[in-house]
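F.,

This is the one I mentioned.
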């Protein structure tokens, strides 16, 4: 390939100045001498040309193929209906047809759902295109083909941001007559107070629907409401926050016949249940060393509202001391145990003896309170083994153990039973990993026999039960058969984990979800779509977990033992959205990415979103679905000018790029022949002007 190149011997401005000066001299010479002065112009032109130093450049070039990028959309919306089959068929046909274009290199780019900081950035075809063509010079891009449903979330505002000038052709999958119905959330509270109602606002959107639809509402997998609503009109739902932690609310609309997908017929709303102040009533039967331990523990918990009374003098003790010197206020027994007993989440009797302070009817109220969902803790001392024991009252109906009227006074180390090693209240207590446990001694325990079916979770001297838990209908009861926990708090013999033990115990009684004996939990790990599943159980083995994905596809996960009573495993979610996990009667939910993915917010194939950018680039946009049910894939054609697409074809603009193997330069303004040309011009000028002078 030959080309003309200039390498001036003087700067271009100086050369331009010489050119202007030469032109002025030529004009003056022509006016003075006539046409014979044209030879002077030729001579000056040759001088200026020599200063410009022209050269003939010969390049040895190898042609380089241009690149055509084919972006194949494999996002979530492209998995709906006929779109996967359409995409595969069109891609295969494009691969075949590009094989006949020998001067174009096709580069296929598969693009899935974008995973940003929120876990769901939708479809980002242009971002993937830019990254895939980062190593290709802009002039070598002959064109771009996008095979997509048109649901794209990173369409550029202008073509300049793409970094190349090439036609963009869009082949749209799907059909124009698609029908679908979906739930759109309008107001979705993220938090709610346990025991209170929250309001959710949503709307059913549809295309090709009936105008009305039946909506069902489930909370933690259980249906709580069903109603018929008008589509396209916002509606409100009220749900009750039953417990702390995630309350998963699902709103599902009935499907349309033949609709595009039913995945977006369900919207999922995890509402975090937040407890208001937990109200605890602590009744100490007498002042003693451990009383402050309980009080300090409960007062240090910001979520606990503590009401504490201490019986300073039993009714039968009459020594003439004025009441005003023994207590700040009178013990409001009727108010606490009749009128407001249901306001408390936990009642603790700490070394309390039945000394006629509470009538028998009040104990009946406490039993009823427990069975209706309340919590009771007995922290027993020597009084529990005597005739005034609470076990001799009507509370005995709900107590997990019965004292044998004996108190054992000897040092011993509290230990976890086999049941306690698996129970979430005592599992992995700090120091329990050694044998004997690395805890300080306790010095006293009340001998007792647990009820049938109740397994103590801690034992004391001579293997006697130390801590026993039981469930009574909807409520819970704990019996601690020693008043020596304060020794751990005071650091006796290095102390022990009293804070962990007593706090877990209190929160188990108040139904903290994390401390349930039988529980199934799942949460994302933060590493892509990985989900960790945990199964808490008191059994020796845990059965498999059935996982149901957002599309209804099921899989089975086998758990392995990680700790006594705790089994776990991880799995990789195949798609974004809500996954339901079941193990026996237990159900758990985990949302991978957002609960309602962006990809499913608008699922209709669309030729309008990309129309502007495609036409601005000189390209085209069309559907590949033919009217007769087949596919209409356009021809591929190379075009060097004019239109870049027609009714049945799409064009690519070549760049004629090449790789230069070698360069030869032939100077034209220097050398013998250039000097000869200049000399010939000067000689001709001298001869002509000299002859004219003699003639004159």
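My design for it:
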């Amino acid at each position: 390939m030959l080309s003309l190149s200039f390498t001036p011997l003087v700067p271009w401005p100086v050369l331009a100045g010489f050119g202007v000066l030469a032109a002025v001299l030529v004009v003056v010479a022509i006016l003075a001498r006539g046409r014979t002065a044209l030879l002077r112009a030729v001579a000056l032109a040759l001088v200026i040309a020599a200063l410009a130093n022209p050269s003939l450049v010969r390049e040895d070039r190898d042609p380089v193929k241009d690149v055509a990028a084919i972006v194949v959309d494999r996002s979530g919306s492209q998995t709906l209906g006929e779109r996967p089959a359409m995409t595969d068929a069109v891609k295969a046909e494009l691969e075949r047809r590009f094989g006949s274009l020998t001067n174009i290199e096709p580069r296929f780019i598969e693009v899935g759902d974008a995973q940003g900081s929120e876990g769901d950035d939708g479809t980002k075809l242009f971002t993937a295109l830019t990254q895939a063509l980062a190593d290709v010079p802009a002039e070598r891009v002959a064109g771009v083909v996008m095979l997509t449903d048109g649901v794209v979330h990173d369409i550029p505002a202008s073509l300049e941001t793409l970094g190349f000038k090439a036609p963009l052709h869009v082949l749209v999958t799907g059909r124009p007559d698609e029908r679908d119905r979906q739930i759109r959330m309008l107001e979705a509270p993220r938090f709610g107070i346990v025991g209170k109602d929250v309001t959710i606002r949503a709307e059913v959107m549809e295309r090709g629907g009936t105008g009305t639809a039946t909506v069902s509402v489930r909370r933690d997998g259980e249906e709580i409401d069903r109603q018929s609503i008008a589509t396209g009109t916002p509606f409100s739902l009220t749900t009750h926050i039953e417990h702390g932690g995630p309350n998963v609310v699902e709103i599902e609309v009935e499907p349309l016949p033949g609709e595009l997908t039913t995945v977006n017929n369900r919207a999922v709303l995890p509402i975090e249940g937040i407890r208001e102040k937990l109200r605890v009533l602590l009744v100490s039967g007498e002042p003693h060393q451990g009383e402050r331990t309980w009080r300090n523990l409960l007062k240090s918990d910001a979520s606990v509202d503590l009401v504490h009374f201490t019986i300073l003098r039993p009714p039968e003790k009459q020594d003439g001391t004025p009441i005003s010197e023994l207590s700040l206020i009178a013990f409001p027994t009727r108010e606490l145990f009749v009128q407001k007993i249901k306001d408390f989440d936990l009642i603790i009797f700490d070394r309390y003896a039945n000394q006629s302070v509470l009538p028998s009817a009040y104990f009946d109220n406490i039993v009823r309170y427990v069975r209706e969902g309340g919590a009771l803790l007995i922290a027993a001392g020597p009084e529990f083994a005597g005739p005034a024991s609470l076990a001799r009252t009507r509370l005995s109906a709900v107590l997990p153990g019965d004292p044998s009227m004996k108190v054992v006074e000897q040092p011993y180390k509290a230990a976890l039973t086999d049941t306690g090693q698996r129970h979430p209240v005592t599992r992995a207590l700090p120091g329990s990993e050694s044998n004997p446990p690395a805890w300080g001694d306790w010095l006293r325990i009340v001998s007792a026999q647990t009820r049938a079916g109740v397994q103590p979770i801690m034992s004391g001297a001579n293997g006697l039960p130390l801590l026993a838990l039981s469930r009574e209908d909807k409520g819970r009861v704990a019996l601690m058969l020693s008043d020596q926990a304060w020794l751990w708090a005071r650091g006796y013999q290095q102390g022990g984990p009293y804070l962990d033990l007593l706090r877990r115990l209190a929160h188990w009684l108040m139904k903290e979800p994390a401390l349930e004996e039988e529980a199934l939990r799942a949460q994302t790990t933060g590493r892509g779509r990985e989900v960790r599943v945990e199964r808490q159980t008191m059994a020796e083995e845990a059965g498999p977990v059935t996982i149901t994905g957002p599309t209804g596809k099921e899989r089975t996960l086998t758990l392995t033992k990680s700790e006594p009573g705790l089994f776990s495993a991880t799995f990789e979610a195949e798609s974004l959205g809500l996954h339901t996990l079941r193990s026996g009667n237990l159900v758990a939910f985990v949302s991978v990415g957002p609960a309602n993915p962006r990809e499913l917010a608008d699922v209709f194939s669309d030729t309008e979103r990309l129309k502007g950018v495609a036409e601005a680039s000189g390209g085209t946009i069309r559907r590949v679905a033919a009217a007769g049910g087949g596919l209409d894939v356009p021809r591929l054609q190379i075009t060097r000018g004019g239109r870049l697409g027609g009714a049945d074809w799409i064009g690519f603009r070549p760049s004629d790029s090449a790789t230069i193997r070698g360069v030869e330069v032939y100077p034209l303004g220097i050398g013998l022949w250039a000097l000869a040309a200049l000399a010939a011009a000067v000689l001709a000028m001298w001869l002509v002007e000299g002859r004219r002078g003699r003639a004159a």
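Residues 672-695 form the longest helix (24 residues).

Talk soon.
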